[in-house]
Amino acid sequence: MSRLNEAEIRRIAELAVKQLEGQATAANVEKVVHEAVQRMSGEGAATAARHERMKNVPPHNQAKGQRIILTAFGANSIGILAGLTSELAALKCDIVDLSQKIMQDFFTIMILVDAGNSDVAYEQIRERMARVGESFNLKVIVQHEDIFKTMHRV
Amino acid sequence: MRIELPEILETIRMTEVEHFDIRTVTMGINLKDCISDSLPRLKNNIYEKLMRTAAEHVATAEKVEAQYGISIANKRISVTPVALVGDGYYAEDFVEIAEVLDKAADNLGVDYLGGFSALVQKGFSKGDLSLIRAIPEALTSTRHVCASVNVATTKAGINMDAVYLMGKIIKQTAEKSADNDGIGCAKLVVFANAPEDNPFIAGAFHGVSEPDVVVNVGISGPGVILRAVKEARNADFPTLADHIRRMAFKITRAGEFVGRKVAELQNIPYGIVDISLAPTPMPGDSIADILKAMGLQDVGAPGTTAALALLNDAVKRGGLMASSHVGGMSGAFIPVSEDQGMISAARAGHITLEKMEAMTSVCSVGIDMVAVPGDTSAESIAGLIADECAIGVSNSKTTAVRVIPVPGKTVGEEADYGGLLGIAPIMPLSKIDNSHFIHRGGRIPAPVKGINN
């Protein structure tokens, strides 16, 4: 019962009024409402099952529109990758793809991140990753994936 | 659809090294519903509507900047030509209206507000004349407001009374802001065939056929086009054009995407992307440098107009493929003071007003941010405007003049306006007398070309 929202309660009331049509005694109302709630819990169960199924869907499909590309570059030092990835893990960001190169001591990394399960706002992810970057003297750029798709795909 | 590392690095190089940004996200706002027969009520209606409609504009644009990592240099507003909204009022009333617009722009945090404008290609209404007469004072007493006057179209011909009047108004505006080298004129543009959805300043206004509110976008990317040209090395012209076209596609897509997001988040319609390449005085962000990279020693060399035509067309090809709604000016800008390469060409005497006039025939804006000697007559300025209008009207295209007769300065000196407006070396303008021609009055008839039905 506690999971019913306002719209559902309204629906129950409408159902009750429709079925009773002027014979609304206290007992009748209770009976009708009880039946309606039973029916809707059935629907609720279906929704829960759908959520259960969605759990098995690969996260990048589920969190459509929540993919972020993190790029970082600067002088190479020990622990950069660990620093970046542990912060991403703390932010509940899933790493989907990662590409890293070191060219003449110059560290470059691109991480494709699924932030669909993160409960932290985008701005905060950006800020916290920039802070990790600062501690390693790296320039960290966090951008939504869509801008790259837009510019590089017809 | 996997995005490859080199593609990501290219985007980052564009934004971090080559100054690629969105020059402006301009919100167009209709003010026709603010009209009132009481000046205080009219002013209040305008202020309230602007504050209500654009309340989230700057914050939204900043949010989109952060999310996608593409900077938006300016957030602007354009409004219905104010001469329409305030028709029937006197010049001093229009100054008050300009001050209200400025106050709203200031409180909203936008960089510029365009639309202190009149469309007089065929003649003046009382409001048009009052607004034009208010321009010198309005541009001196406000910071963000920009004015424009359309004096010619291919359909109507050239209103020479308006052309002469604007020559005088430009002189007065320069004199009013003499302490700052006539900076008021940097916010004033005279048009032929003005587009109604132009997001760029100083000529932006919200056309009468536009929806109540709309978001238009202007891109900027001479730096990335310069790289494309350099990468083409010694290639022949088709290959060179192809390099430019591909790069123009990318920057237009980014511009359109950013514009759509800003519009979507505020739940208002998205209008157009203007694919003009807008330079800045920053090194490496210059149209002139692109023309030089094509193989000219400096702009002004024979071949400059052809090089500009190639650039402009290649940018359009890429841009049209990238966006479903291209509009505004959509052609390269060649402002002198706002382009490092143009500044140095003007200093060296390599580029002249006459050559710039020729270049106008193949790009969007004509004589733009050009400083001329302070003792230039209103008739000479009017002649310059008339020539630009003739090019626009005869070729069914937009042309414009934004010229600054710098008070007390002459050829060899410079006017420094700072920021995006840059440094303007004073350029010589022919002193051969044209006054008998300018004083004739009336309208130069529309060209046969305009009668095309």
Automatic annotation (TrEMBL), chain A:
InterPro entries (alphabetical): ACT-like_dom_sf, ACT_dom, UPF0237_ACT
SUPFAM superfamilies attached to this UniProt entry: ACT-like (SSF55021)
Annotated Gene3D superfamilies: 3.30.70.260
ACT domain: residues covered: 69-143
Official protein name in the record: ACT domain-containing protein
TrEMBL record, chain B:
Pfam family, one: DUF711
Protein name from the UniProt record: UPF0210 protein ENJ15_00865
Annotated InterPro entries: UPF0210
NCBIfam families assigned to the protein according to its UniProt record, in alphabetical order: PRK05313.1 (NF003700)
Membership in a protein family: Belongs to the UPF0210 family.
Domain of life: Bacteria
Subunit structure: Homodimer.
Species per Swiss-Prot/TrEMBL record: Caldithrix abyssi
PANTHER family xref list: UPF0210 PROTEIN MJ1665 (PTHR37560:SF1), UPF0210 PROTEIN SPR0218 (PTHR37560)
